[in-house]
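does this look right to u?? glycine version
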Amino acid sequence: MQIAITREVSRSIAQCELTHLSRVQIDLELARSQHQRYQQALAELGCEVVSLEEQPELPDSVFVEDVAIVLDECAVITRPGADSRRPESDSIARKLSEYRKLVYIEAPGTLDGGDVLRVGKTLFVGLSGRSNRAAIDQLRALIAPYGYTVKAAEVSGCLHLKSAVSQAAENTLLVNPRWVNPADFGDFEWLEIDPAEEYAANTLLIGKSIIYPTSFPRTRQLLEQRGIRVVAVEVSELQKAEGAVTCCSLVFTQPVTSA
Ligand code: GLY
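got this back:
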């Protein structure tokens, strides 16, 4: 069974962090209804959705992915790169402690989960404006005992590594080659986004399907031509907050325990 932890959209989302986008008005009710549909898509794909209550004082708190990395053996509580986002960690840590042993990234390390692309036992970590080498070194030491390899990857022009590259199928990565160097990622099949859709490289793989924004029809066509099943969701308001589909959930497997 897969668990998907989400959090309701904060009423203060209009005050979110923005790095590469200009601030434009966000329709809160529309953001909430889009988020609701996103959660439905997770449920339709077989996830048990654990939806946490709104954090009114934390504008970016819907983007739960950034505060933790959940592996089979433990959950790494990150130390987000933006000061305003650090208070998001506590309640996610409390919830994750129901499922996993917790370990922590500590200062001077900074790490956003959006910079971490896990494929099997390898974690690629973006050196972005939010995540630094100190955190990568800590992460490597924390999870090496479980057999994971951690590799740094340069990223430029976007907020997070997964703005530039994400997993679209078992052995296929969806990439914007203007923001990362595919050679940093080893031996995968590559699918390049349509160049007219520069934010199109973020997709959330659940089983054999992907949750994918409706706003990138050209890249969606390329995905479908590869035989990838797309569940399309409208996320325009979350995109205005520099969010994407991976950011809004923490998805992990809960082993079935016999009674
Ligand atoms: N607004 C998303 C972030 O900057 O973390």
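The pocket of glycine is lined by residues 16-17, 19, 60, 63, 82, 85, 159, 241-243 (CB under 6 Å). idk if thats expected tbh
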